[in-house]
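Model: Ready when you are.
Researcher: Fold this.
Model:
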Amino acid sequence: MPITTPNDFSTIRDLLRYAVTLFNTEKLFFGHGSANALDEAAYLILHTLKLPLDKLEPFFDARLLQDEVDAVLKVIDRRAVQRIPAAYITHEGWLGGYRFYVDERVIVPRSFIAELIPDQFSPWINNPETVTNILELCTGSGCLPIMLADAFPNAQIDAVDISSNALAVAKRNVDDYDLNDRITLIESDLYENVPENKYDLIITNPPYVNSASMKKLPPEYLREPQIALAGGDDGMDLVRKIVAGAAKRLTPKGLLMVEIGNERAYAEAAFPDIDLTWLTTSAGDDMVFLITADQLR
């Protein structure tokens, strides 16, 4: 049921105050870009009014037309009542300074691997120009291969997903960044339909949420394709398959990089005979692990 709202809003200041209070009252979950109610409300209001997303202050007290107020209130209602992630309302997600088209066919772009791409995975890769083939599994919206194409200018990238719907979104993003000559989208259950190539890098942010955690997801995450989140009882169902198939796909000095979120304990239990290397991200040293081709052999 829509929330009853007063009809005397006239400025962005009015709408922002109302939205922040409503978002906090409804106890929304912020895990898709914004970190709090104020940032999310400001983003949604500015986007709806087609104003610069980084310039709230100059427009605080600008008087709005009634249809502008109505449009903003409709967006606020969708976010607060229907618990639709902001990215699905605006059809855009941001990751590492890149803008991507997003809709309900893919999860909202988010990845700790994305933090490592601008540094070209240093010190694990000494010369980024020698990286010529990259495989990215579970690509979703195609955000990581687009970032990888910039970081590794000589690389051809195969980006894989089992979902044809997700690949349709990825194609739109690859088209937007004019990278069709460097990124090949492949519909495949992990390695099944992947060419028999050797890759310098295999990168993946697969479904890894364990079954107990899936039951506790907030409503916003339940709006996302569950196939892109659920990783089985311990979250490692797909991760096991990815690690098992990586050895014959990597070059002799190749690297496998896997994001597993908060599942470090499950990952270490799943691979007791491999000394996983944990990479440092903004969330700590237990979100992304690396395995070398030598270790897999």
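Researcher: Now this one.
Model:
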Amino acid sequence: MIAGRSVLALITARGGSKGVPGKNILPIGGKPLIQWTIDAARASRYIDRLILSSDDDAIMAAAAAGGCEVPFRREAALADDTASSIDVVIDALQRVPGHDIVVLLQPTSPLRSTADIDGTLERLVESQAPSCVSVRAAEEHPYWTFRTGSDGRLARYAEPPAGLPTRRQDLPEAWCLNGAVYAAQVDRFLADRSFLTAQTVGYPMPAERSLDIDTPADVERLIAAVQNARLPFHDRPDAAATPR
């Protein structure tokens, strides 16, 4: 619990990945990819219940073996390419009711740490916002991105104020979602049907922990990170949190 509020953590992992077949249980660093997220969540100081939503037998078996509760099988209609993650979260909240805060953890963000999960929850509560999501610094600033018209001419996606300096170090901050942690007050989430509203706050994460596994190249980057010992908080010998 955090500030007297119960926290449900939801790991979503469907079968049938096309970019990297079987990626959710792909062995990385001696354990399935999904185990990296399970370990980070189990070490949290605030998570009261950790569950999986999946339609895949192999993923469900791996999650259960790794210490994640698997209280139901996701319906096929919520496991195809057209299903939204919002509908999957709402389905889980209806199946496992009674919690004040929900935190969505995708197994494709394996380098997110326990400290990142707890930090997102702390910022959610301290800010009294309806939701808090993890972000990373944008690789390309919006003021430096363009679209092309039918005539091929460039137009900025975001127009800077007149006289704005164009040196990178002088640009205002710009952030991108990194997909690692989404947290929300349950009642507000159900009303808004979104983790992103005008009142959402961000929890900054560094680029090295913001890797999102979507392609074989991403898998190679993860393997390199593991081999170089750039491990998340819960895998460091000095990790302070106790797995639960």
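Researcher: Key takeaway?
Model: The mean pLDDT is 88.
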